[in-house]
Amino acid sequence: MTSVDRWMLPEGVDELLPERAAVAEQLRRNILDLLKSWGYQLVVPPLIEFTDSLLIGMGKDIETQSFKLTDQISGKSMAVRADITPQTARIDAHSLKAEGIRRLCYAGSVLHTRPKTLMASRCPMQIGAEIYGDASMSADIEVISLLLETLQLIDSEFTSAQGTASKGLCQLTLDLGHVSIYNAVREAIQAAAPALEQDDLALIFDAIQRKSLPDLKCLLPNLLAGHAITETLYQLPSLCGGANVLLEAKALLASLGQGVIDAIDQLTQVAEIISQRFTGVEVYFDLAEIRGYEYHTGLVFAAYADGHGLALANGGRYDNIGKVFGSERSATGFNTDIKALIDFLGSRATLAAQPINAEREIIAAPSSDEASLWNAVSQLRSAGSIVIFNGEAGTEKPTSLLVQKAGNWVVEKIK
After folding, report:
1. Considering the domain boundaries, does residue 1 fall inside one?
2. Please, what is the end-to-end C-alpha distance for the chain in angstroms?
């Protein structure tokens, strides 16, 4: 690498310069304050852990997204976290000796081997919340409500900073699904064709995920010829839309067992409550949505904004993840990426970052070694003012000067 290239960062690895960093930090603080008001306790897991604890039980997606290295002290394999959720589960089950219901939240950087989407950062700033020890539907509803309130908090801050003319996040849509439906379909396929290769099974679900009926019509006659489940698979990609989809799903999927009916009933109840609480949020059902939920076990959800194809936040239930840490704990939670939120908001309008010192006085002080000046500056900073020696305040203009009069240091406004 030449000296000219030394400033370059790896592809997909980015940095936040002062204005965006100020916005990111303010969002982080405000979201954590919101989570605290709901009773969620902050934890700060380490950046790296042994792969035995960090990757176990999380599925192939997380493993392939994780950078691995060897610990120079123990010789054991370690990984840089690609998701903070498994770390939080470990903390609940092992470090805090899981008992009763516990609410935890977190905020920190993660690292991905590859960006999740074409323009995504490989080092997102993940922030989220998890409930452990509560298997009830109420816990799922709480987490979804908290997710939506988090996005509405960001929206209100953005629109207030930009003025009422800004659209902010616009219309939010909550996408609901249930992993029990995917599991039931998978079991039905395997029961119908026990000899079916896993690669072929993956091709079928990939076509369902992409909602590609032509691909299914090419695959299924060869892989599942003569089996009744074939007709169900042809119709599964169309099970997306409003509440009427759930009625269609009950009729179509009834043969897959009571577990599927219970899952559909749960989706109905959750949607009704969320619609009452958040009247401006549209609820959308996608019973074929499975991507990104590899370790989930129940209700899954994602929030989208009008005109934006990528989820702003997502989550779901992932029971028993704590089993590998010595405690089978029911769990549900959500997370979002602060960088992605800033990028999205910035695409709506020029995101004029509210300077972190927007409401604080900026005072220019002379360069001097006098003890009295140092004491005066220290007192002003303790009182909340920003004091900069030599009068240099970067992009911010000083509003006042610190001058000496009759042996005392006084602040004078710049006219």
Report:
1. no
2. 51
